Amino acid sequence: MRMLRIALKSLKARWISLLGAFLALALGVAMTAVMLLGLAAALGTPGGPGGEELVSLVAALGTAGGVSAFVSAFVVASTFSYAVAQRRRELGLLRLAGATPAQVRRTVLAEALLLGAVASAAGCALGRLGAPVLLRRLVGVGMAPPGFALGPTGWPLLTAFWTGLLVALCGVAVAARRAGRVGPLDALRTADLDAGVLTVGRLVTGLGLLLTAAVLTAAALATDPVDLLHRKTYTTQPMWLISACGLLSPLFAPPLVRALGRLAPARFTGYAGRLVRANAAAALRRTGAVAAPVLVSVALTGSLAGALDTVSAARSAEARARTAADLIVVPADGGAPDATADALRAVPGVALSPTGPTRLSLVEPDGVVVRSEARVADPAGLAALARLPLLAGSPADLDDGSLVLPAEWGHTTTGEPVPVIRADGSRATLRVAAVLRDGLGDNGLYVTAANAPGARTDRIEVRLDHLADAERVRADEQVRTAARASGATVFSREDWLAATAPANARTAWLRTVLVLGLALVYTGIALANTILTATADRRRELALLRLAGAGRAQVVRLVTAESVLVVAVGAVLGCAVTAVQLGTMHGAAALLGTPAPWVLPWRPVGLVTAGAVLLAALCAAPATAWALRSRPVTAAAR
Q1: Do 256 and 178 share a structural domain?
Q2: Which three-class secondary structure state does DSSP give residue 4?
Q3: Is 130 in the same domain as 264?
Q4: Has residue 205 got a pLDDT over 80?
Q5: Plot region of 45 (φ>0 → left; ψ -120 to 50 → alpha; else → beta)
Q6: Final residue before a domain boundary, out of 440, 462, 487
Q7: What is the predicted pLDDT for the residue at 50?
Q8: For the chain: N or C, fewer Cβ within 10 A?
């Protein structure tokens, strides 16, 4: 009980230094609550958005909730660790007054419990207010149906509250253990040099996370490269690297500080450049706390935006590589695609491959039915125009009693029987004519018209076979004339690929914005809070600089330059995570036979980094000026 009273008094006395931890936790809980409330609304909507749209919305909200929880836990742990490190002298006084290490640990944990409970409750209230705004935005961009509204709020808010409390306790657990090791003589220390920041446990855990990320990536590259290009994987994979970089930041920060400190803005501070580098390298806990939000924001932005561009480029390369067509003819809605195909066949020197969508379900040995999109195709046209990534068999062997399927279906032997359910509900057993390597776009499942009841041709691929230039031009004109006569639209292959890409890109970008949006806002606020509270706690250090002869403006420039330098360290670490993540994805694409061009996310990463630098400068300068408001002699005597 005595330590609880001490904890309450400490919270009251040090509310400014703990404000950053409070706001970081409250906003993290608010983010989690907003996503959970949106998820509850999606799952509880009467009738639901329906089918794949509901699955897509739930997946997007679930992913965003997971990213929000990770970001908040990462930033809160870093903020709490720094908040406890700031109190070294205070904890040393407790030990000097007779407190045991266990009592000091219990005091720190009690403070975290009290602070966490209040911050989690505040976060739940903010989340409850913010959830309707999110739901309206989802409806506005077309990710949710009209009338999508807030559902039950009980379990999402309770889950967010207890998650916040758990994050607070876990975030301060290691710091509390370290606080218990503070000795009485630490109360007499005045230097701010951080010693023993990179402990053996921290080093082993960080290296273990790096090793885990490497093993998971190597295993995926060896067994299932396409998994590295799935949204769930490239969203969660960077978290291992971000956590490892956060833990190993005391190892990476000093050389990065020395390297970046010789560039702008440190060189523009003249003689103070060495002092900027020395401050950032000496106060590693403060450096880590400021760099943590920047690291996570830059790494997530670069990884997700770069992954989206990489997958899009790989899909375009795959689609381009899978067809030998020169023209794509799209029959008119309500028209007669068979008549269009017959008219095109009358053009001399062309090869056609009409295809259309259908549904086909696989019946697994345990009776589970797995639905899949398929395409109905003409075997001769498929063999002539499609460049399929074959693992076994040939598409020319496709007939009414067989199918072409991807390896992910699990049937990789030609001639193997596969029980299926057609689009009209009828059952059949088809043999495997060919097996395709898994890809990123269409799953490569093909059947003939006999196994696709009700299917209509939605595109006709046309190749101008072995024609001289003049004949090719004439055949092209005849194809376009025949297509226009039946109301069809003709695209060149490049125009077709460009026309079919935007819809998928827009949906993917909306999901990425949903995942990143609140996380970036949160990390920005966390960065501002950390800089403000850290600068406010440096009043004595800044007063000593004034007493040593530095002018007020010089001190403001020095602290601002130091903050910008630390932000640059976090940005470099985030870019390193991005480079590793995109490198593994390009390796996976190369193994799949669809090497995509490198599409580096310079613009989003540059915008996030520039925003962090600007925010750091705007927060550090006024916070330093406020910390210098007292007379230097008075502040130095505290």
Answers
A1: no
A2: helix
A3: no
A4: yes
A5: beta
A6: 487
A7: 45
A8: N
Mean pLDDT across the stretch 296-321? Answer: 84
Three-state SS at 460: strand
366 and 414 inside one domain = yes
pLDDT at 298: 93
State how far the Cα of 154 lies from the Cα of 121, in Å rounded to an integer: 13
Please indicate, yes or no, if residue 238 is contained in any of the structural domains: yes
> What distance in Å separates the CA atoms of residue 7 and residue 180, rounded to the nearest whole number?
15
Q: How many domains does the chain have?
A: 3
Contacts of 374 (CB under 8 A, 6+ apart): 357, 358, 359, 360, 403, 445, 446, 447, 452
CB 360 within 8 Å of CB 421: yes
Radius of gyration of the chain (CA): 31
Same domain, yes or no: 336 and 483: yes
* Higher-pLDDT residue of 120, 16: 120
Range 128-135 average pLDDT: 83
- Smallest CA-to-CA distance from 61 within 410, 453, 513, 434 is with 513
Q: Which residues contact 22 (CB under 8 A, 6 or more apart)?
A: 115, 118, 119
Peptide bond into 379 cis (omega under 30): no
Same-domain pairing of 293 and 341: no
Domain identity same for 315 and 350:
no
Query: How far from each other are the two terminal CA atoms of the chain, in whole angstroms?
Result: 29
Contact 292, 571 (CB under 8 A): no
Residue 502 pLDDT > 60: no
Distances, alpha carbon 517 to alpha carbons 12, 31, 68, 142, 581, in Å: 34, 10, 10, 17, 20
Greatest mean pLDDT among 264-278, 419-433, 536-550: 419-433
The one-letter code for the residue type at 510 is L
Strand partners, 459: 355
Can you list the pairs that 602-611 forms with residues at least 24 positions away whose Cβ atoms lie under 8 Å? 604/301, 604/302, 604/305, 605/298, 605/301, 605/302, 605/305, 605/574, 605/575, 605/578, 608/297, 608/298, 608/301, 608/520, 609/294, 609/298, 609/567, 609/571, 611/524
Q: Round to whole Å and give the CA distance between 414 and 399.
A: 13
**Using an 8 Å Cβ cutoff, are 460 and 331 in contact?**
yes
User: If you count them, how many residues does the chain have?
Assistant: 638
Return mean pLDDT, the chain. 78
Could you tell me the residue range of the domain that residue 543 belongs to?
212-324+501-638
* pLDDT above 50: residue 93: yes
Asked if residue 110 and residue 54 are part of one domain, the reply reads yes
CA atoms within 13 A on the CB side of 409: 33
Q: What percent of the chain has pLDDT over 90?
A: 6
Distance CA 582, CA 598 (A): 9
In a domain, 535, yes or no: yes
pLDDT exceeds cutoff 60 at 127:
yes
Same domain (yes/no): 348, 415: yes
User: Which run of H or E residues covers position 568?
Assistant: helix 552-591
